[in-house]
From TrEMBL:
One of its GO terms (cellular component) is myosin II complex. It comes from Didymodactylos carnosus. SUPFAM superfamilies: EF-hand. Residues 4-39, 41-75, 76-111 form the EF-hand domain. SMART domains: EFh. Pfam families: EF-hand_7. Keywords: Calcium, Repeat. The keyword Repeat applies. InterPro entries: CALM/Myosin/TropC-like, EF-hand-dom_pair, EF_Hand_1_Ca_BS, EF_hand_dom. This is EF-hand domain-containing protein. The keyword Nucleotide-binding does not apply.
Length: 137
């Protein structure tokens, strides 16, 4: 299986690492799952995920562990973050604002509560600018 683009992995990792401390805690995993799906992992599901990913048994997921997980267990075609970003960027100005994000999400499932959309956009908008850009570091 081909390795994922490093920038895409960093971006995806940062979506989970909501407090930006460089690791993904179990509570951060739970928050992202809830924001994205509206449901939460059962304790046994979270434990199974941690057993698979947390190879140093620290209780958290490091960038290296995350990269290994993605490269070994997730096919590259399923990521496509750049292509996904471009779909959300309705006006093609290089950034996705909250309205664009909400517009696309509502076309997928109009039953998603506004609170969930607000939570997810707050996770993405790290500098409170009102929009998210796709930039290479």
């Amino acid at each position: 299986m081909a390795a994922h683009d490093v920038h895409e992995l960093k971006l995806l990792f940062s979506l989970f690492d909501t407090n930006h401390d460089g690791i993904i805690s179990q509570s951060e995993i739970q928050k992202v799952i809830e924001a994205a799906t509206g449901t939460s992992f059962q304790p046994e599901q979270l434990a199974a995920l941690m057993k698979l990913v947390d190879t140093d048994n620290s209780g958290d997921i490091t960038m290296d562990e995350f990269t290994t997980l993605m490269n070994e267990h997730v096919q590259q075609k399923f990521l496509g973050l750049r292509e996904l970003f471009n779909k959300f960027d309705v006006d093609k100005n290089g950034s996705v604002d909250k309205d664009e994000f909400e517009q696309i999400i509502k076309t997928v499932d109009n039953r998603i509560p506004k609170e969930q959309i607000d939570l997810f956009t707050s996770l993405l908008d790290k500098n409170d600018s009102g929009s998210v850009t796709y930039e290479r570091e």
